[in-house]
UniProtKB/TrEMBL annotation:
GO cellular component: cytoplasm; nucleus
Classification via InterPro entries: SRR1-like, SRR1L
Any coiled-coil regions, as ranges: none
UniProt record similarity statement: Belongs to the SRR1 family.
Highest taxon of source: Eukaryota
Pfam families: SRR1
Species of provenance: Tetracentron sinense
Protein name, UniProt field: SRR1-like domain-containing protein
Amino acid sequence: MLASAKNLKPENTSFNGEWTSVPTGLGSINFPTLEPLPQQGIPWPSRHNVVDPERQLNLMQEMQICINKLKHSQFYHTFLDQIQNTQIVDNFVRALDSELKMQMVIYGIGSIESDEPCRFQLSLAILMKRKFSWIGEIEVFDPVLSTTETRVLEALGCSVLSVNEQARRKALKPTFFFMPHCDIRLYNNLLQENWQAELLNHTVVFGNSFKLHEQIASKYTRSYSAEAKHVLGVQKFMNEFRIKTFSDEWFGGAFGDSSLHFFYLDPEIELQCIQAYFFSV
Ligand SMILES: C[S@@+](CC[C@H](N)C(=O)[O-])C[C@H]1O[C@@H](n2cnc3c(N)ncnc32)[C@H](O)[C@@H]1O
């Protein structure tokens, strides 16, 4: 089955900085306009290699401000209530299986030096790690990260990957993929790489609502549906919880349209079932 799925691998493409507005029944959603992605697995040279201690210090201070602002916000308290409710806890426990820790992999965080929403997103990941002992090490990759940003991420306790995995990381152990507002093809790459019950059951994705992607797929182009094939195909085996935001706060921009996604597949029946559903999309 995996061999067949690989034949459907989407063309390598990525966000080019522009957005396409797509009308939906729930209002208008912005989706990234796509262009070719760089190749996977090649060591990634940071685009801005200059080490500037003053910039590092400024960014560290800005990060501390964002972490504090988020920590004391209504959004964060609601988020904590939400993810500690029984339903979501049960899903995390199932994804953890018998492990005590769930590593966190952050893809597509964006430029934390240029954009406040990106700093708030990183702040949420860091606050989660501080709050929950079951969150393990944090690894981060985004091709836009500068040396300054890399140093600050490391000072905050994260490891920055030097290789572009194109989100094709196998969840050989429980893994929380924190991917706020990523290109649909990164979510799709991730699911394709983990297209087996054992791997998907260990995978948790924080990112743009997969259900919203399903709702807009019919209104968007055929090529979009092809690019989103695994995101659409996994819906039958998924629990999705929308992250509550408040339109009058700054956090809407950072966490709007975001959801937590958990997957549940029975290893005994999964192969036929998921294959049949996948090819009927
Ligand atoms: C739409 S932006 C979202 C940025 C930020 N999270 C936000 O909400 O504003 C998508 C991000 O994905 C990053 N990206 C593109 N290809 C990637 C890859 N292969 N791995 C990780 N991140 C990638 C881009 O550089 C960009 O920062």
